[in-house]
């Protein structure tokens, strides 16, 4: 709770002081929050999806109250999109899929897509289509394509298994 109060006390002044900066395009509310704050439990503020929902909802409202001109968005992982739809059902901890996707002025999901052992971008296209199909159609959707080489696990230095090893897109795939 102390971290929550501190974050909220800083967020308003930051939004207020930066809202007219010429380089500001949008406010980035969170990076893959479902995995980082819920399933991995790295942030003690969020004991469940409902407490995370309340935090992000309040943060969004606070930023918009200080800067109504710039969009606010949250980037969710493509895997979380699939988990919400396939494994969690429509509701988890009293939060619906449609509520979770409504943080922000547009929705964005990370698309980890080109498998290292493939020459096709089919998996990438499937994930974009999946996210577009199951998230709110009343708001714009932005696919954030991951273009890094994930053949090696940076934490261990060991090769990743082929089914979770991603590669940079080749010029012909682009």
Percentage of helical residues?
Answer: 40-55%
Strand order of the largest sheet: 1-2-5-6
* DSSP strand tally: 6
Shape: globular
- What is the H/E string? HEHHEHEEHEHE
**DSSP helical segment count:** 6
Radius of gyration based on Cα positions: 18 Å
- Poorly predicted runs: none
Largest sheet: 4 strands, parallel
Intertermini distance: 45 Å
Strand content range: 5-15%
Overall average pLDDT: 76
Structural class assignment: alpha/beta
Briefly, what is this?
This protein is an alpha/beta fold. Helix content is 40%, strand content 15%.
Description:
The protein has 174 residues and is α/β, with parallel strands linked by helices. 40% of the residues lie in helices and 15% in strands. It has helices spanning 2-18, 33-39, 49-66, 78-88, 97-100, 122-134, and strands at residues 27-31, 72-77, 91-92, 95-96, 106-111, 141-145. A hairpin with a 2-residue loop joins β3 (91-92) and β4 (95-96). α1 runs parallel beside α3. The mean pLDDT is 76.
